[in-house]
């Protein structure tokens, strides 16, 4: 496998493209927006510059990595000749089903179709294609160039051969692949999101403030980042989407999103990406606690 495509140039997509390109793969990075592609390439360049400053790569490796990436705004042009497609578009079922239906029509018969979804059923996505045995989940962690884990999720029909191929491929990227089965939230988010949701409930019920909750979990549980800060980093809209997928999938009230989370998303307070969530990320008050509305 030498040539792959990544759909979506956002945070996850450009990170996935970066890792493959740095490891010698030819990468077609695809997005409907040229602005998003330019921003994605800028992010990759900045991340490579950080690695260069830390002397973990040299200038030649940086230039080689960037030369391995070609951008496309047309899906058909970007995926027609690749051996693997990794979809990293918005965490929305309808969008993903449309993409996979199109991929099944456009991609060559032997191509593997993977999704970076963090919670949506691989089996349901695969059902939009005529090749469900070649559809698999590759859930990378953010930030992709740094985090070692890749959750490899088998759908109901995913073949053993495809699973082995993707496990070995992940190892070639310097990652640690972990095979899990196809249930809402898989493993990472099935455990993480209820913790984040309970942290928001704790704030909502007035048990403690933002900074206090995060301090307890960082110092008491040895978490590198508090759950509310982590939620800001992930994106509160993404957290809400994942919780809704699990609540719909399991019909268990323990996965129901906290009303405070719902209200914050409706108000556009999405965390780092919007400049404000549980903390303030504006230039003048970077990462300060947003406390007044929660007291």
From TrEMBL:
The keyword Signal does not apply. NAD(+) binds at residues 8-13, 31, 91, 96, 118, 142, 273. The keyword NAD applies. It comes from the Bacteria. It is an enzyme of class 1 (oxidoreductase). Residues 3-182 form the 3-hydroxyacyl-CoA dehydrogenase NAD binding domain. Gene3D superfamilies: N-(1-d-carboxylethyl)-l-norvaline Dehydrogenase, domain 2, NAD(P)-binding Rossmann-like Domain. One of its GO terms (molecular function) is NAD+ binding. The record marks 139 as: Important for catalytic activity. It holds the Pfam family 3HCDH. SUPFAM superfamilies: 6-phosphogluconate dehydrogenase C-terminal domain-like, NAD(P)-binding Rossmann-fold domains. GO terms for biological process: fatty acid metabolic process. Its EC number is 1.1.1.157. PROSITE patterns: 3HCDH. Residues 185-281 form the 3-hydroxyacyl-CoA dehydrogenase C-terminal domain. Signal peptide: none annotated. InterPro entries: 3-OHacyl-CoA_DH (IPR022694), 3-OHacyl-CoA_DH_CS (IPR006180), 3-OHacyl-CoA_DH_NAD-bd (IPR006176), 3HC_DH_C (IPR006108), 6-PGluconate_DH-like_C_sf (IPR008927), 6PGD_dom2 (IPR013328), NAD(P)-bd_dom_sf (IPR036291). Keywords: NAD, Oxidoreductase. Belongs to the 3-hydroxyacyl-CoA dehydrogenase family. This is 3-hydroxybutyryl-CoA dehydrogenase.
């Amino acid at each position: 496998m030498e040539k792959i495509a990544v759909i979506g140039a956002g945070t996850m997509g450009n990170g996935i493209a970066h890792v493959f390109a740095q490891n010698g793969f030819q990468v077609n990075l695809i997005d409907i927006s040229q602005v998003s592609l330019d921003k994605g390439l800028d992010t990759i360049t900045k991340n490579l510059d950080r690695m260069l400053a830390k002397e973990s790569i040299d200038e030649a490796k940086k230039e080689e990595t960037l030369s391995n990436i070609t951008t496309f705004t047309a899906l058909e042009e970007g995926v027609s000749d690749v051996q693997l497609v990794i979809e990293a578009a918005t965490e929305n079922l309808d969008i993903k089903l449309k993409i996979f239906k199109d991929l099944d029509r456009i991609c060559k018969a032997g191509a593997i179709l993977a999704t970076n979804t963090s919670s949506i059923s691989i089996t349901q996505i695969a059902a939009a294609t005529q090749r469900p045995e070649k559809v698999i989940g590759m859930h990378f962690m953010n930030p992709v160039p740094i985090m070692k884990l890749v959750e490899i999720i088998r759908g109901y029909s995913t073949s053993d051969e495809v699973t082995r191929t993707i496990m070995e491929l992940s190892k070639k990227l310097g990652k640690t692949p972990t095979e899990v089965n196809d249930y809402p939230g898989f493993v990472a988010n099935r455990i993480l999101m209820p913790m984040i949701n309970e942290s928001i409930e704790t704030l909502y019920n007035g048990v403690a403030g933002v900074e206090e909750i995060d301090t307890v979990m960082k110092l008491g549980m040895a978490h590198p980042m508090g759950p509310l800060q982590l939620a800001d980093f992930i994106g509160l809209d993404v957290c809400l989407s994942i919780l809704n997928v699990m609540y719909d999938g399991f019909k268990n009230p323990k996965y129901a999103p906290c009303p405070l989370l719902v209200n914050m998303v409706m108000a556009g307070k999405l965390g780092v990406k919007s400049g404000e969530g549980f903390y303030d990320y504006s230039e003048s008050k970077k990462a300060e606690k947003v406390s007044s509305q929660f007291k």
